[in-house]
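Re: the 214-residue chain
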Amino acid sequence: MRAALTKVIDASGTMRVAGTAAHDKDLRGLLDVGVDADVVVLDRSIHTGQPDAFTGLITEICAVARTVVFGAPSDQEVDAQVRAGATGVLAADVSASQLIAALETVCRGGLVVALGTAPAVRKAPARVTPALTRDLSLREREILTMLSSGQDSASIARDLGLSPLTVKTHITHMLSKLGIRRRGHLIAFAYESGLIVPGMTPTSFIATRLQAAS
C-alpha cells in the first residue's frame, strides 16, 4: 500500500513523498528528525501496537502537520477521525486522481471527506452546541460553511465579494470566540456543532473545489 501511494503521489507533478513508515514509532521518528511534511497520509492499517490507538495517533500527528486518513472503514470512524483533527478522510477505493485532488485541497487548508463507492455516511441528527454557535454572526457561519466545503480564503472572498483580509479577519474572530487555535479544528467544530451535517448533501459534505494540490 505504501509503495502504491508513493507511486501515485510522486507521479502527480505537484507533490513528492518525503518518507514512509510502517509503524507509528517510525512515523514519529521521521517527524522528530525534521522531515518537512505539509501533509501526512495515515493509512488505516499502520501498526500502532494497540487496536484503539489510531485516533490518538491522528491527534498527535495533527499537532505538527495536516493529516489525511486513508482507508476509513465506517461512518463511525469518519466521525471520530474528524473530531480527532483529521482534515481529510478517504475511502480505500478512491481513484488516484481523487487522492491527489484531496491532498492538494487539504494542503490549501480545506477539508475533504471522500468515501468513493464505500457505504455512504449515515445521516445523523445535528449535534448543536447553542452557547457556542450563537456567538457566531451570520457572516461568520457563512464563511465557516464555505471553509468546511474546501474553499480557501481567496475563493471565499471572491464568491462573497469581500477582500481576502476581511475573510481572514472573520476567521480570526471565529477562532477567538470558540477558543480554537487551528483552522482544522475550526472545521471539525462545524461538523460537531451541526453547521455541517455529514450526508446532508454532497456539496455540504464533500469538498468540490479540487482543481489543483504547519
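The CA atoms of residues 157 and 167 lie 6 Å apart.
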